[in-house]
Specification:
Number of domains: 2
Domain Bacterioopsin transcriptional activator GAF and HTH associated: 6-139
Organism: Haloprofundus marisrubri
Number of strands: 8
Pfam families: BAT (PF15915), HTH_10 (PF04967)
Radius of gyration: 18 Å
Low-confidence stretches: 214-245
Biased composition (Basic and acidic residues): 227-239
Strand content: 25-35%
Keywords: Transcription, Transcription regulation
Structural class: alpha+beta
Order of helices and strands: EHEEHEEHEEHEHHHH
Strand order of the largest sheet: 4-5-3-2-6-7-1-8
Oligomer: single chain
Distance between the termini: 17 Å
Length: 245
Amino acid sequence: MSSIAEFVIPVEEFVLGDVLSSASGLEVAIERLVVHTEGGLVPYIRVVGDDLSSFGDALEDDRTIADVRLIESFEGERLYRVHWVAETDALEAALNPIDASIVRAVAGERYWHLRGLFADREALASFYDACRAAYSIELDNVYDRRNPATFGEYEVTPEQRDLLVAAFEGGYFEVPRRITTQDLAEEFDISVQAVSQRLRRGHQNLLRNTLAAGVENEDVDDGGPTLDEHADVEGRDGMLDDTPE
């Protein structure tokens, strides 16, 4: 059974150190990371905030990056595709021999929060051991992809459940609403964007596994937890805490 694992790596030890120093007030996340056929890693980097031009300039000037391409640009949000050619050898070497991928990574003030998908626990152990030789990496959480005991009833994560219950009890779903997403963001110490995403995914998981059970829809994403929900966390307090015994 495949496993999902979450790790933290100090910002100063990982990639984009110089770029992040110029990204004050921005939310920076790696959405997908693949190994380039000619060596190096190719991540898709999404940045949300106001001063996006300075971030783009910093990417262009980063000595570890060989190529930068702007894929999407909206008001307050951009998606870049970059090709790392240096300082990612350890991560590339850890990913190459195993069936695994880094599906998302979010930069906090002190830590990078990484989420990886692994074919099995053996692949996870191999990746972790390889990374420990290069980084001060710590495993914060691991759970089986489709195990209700670790993934939550109806595949709702503990974080999604807590937020949904708080929203219900606080009157978020009433007309008119008694609380707002801003109120929930302050209560859970996350961003308004993270609240919206967590509520949406929680609803999606509930519907898929109750009213829509048995209905096939390949266009709907898997609804699992994403680091979008923790993009505003500055330290490690926002990581999932449902690690199985």
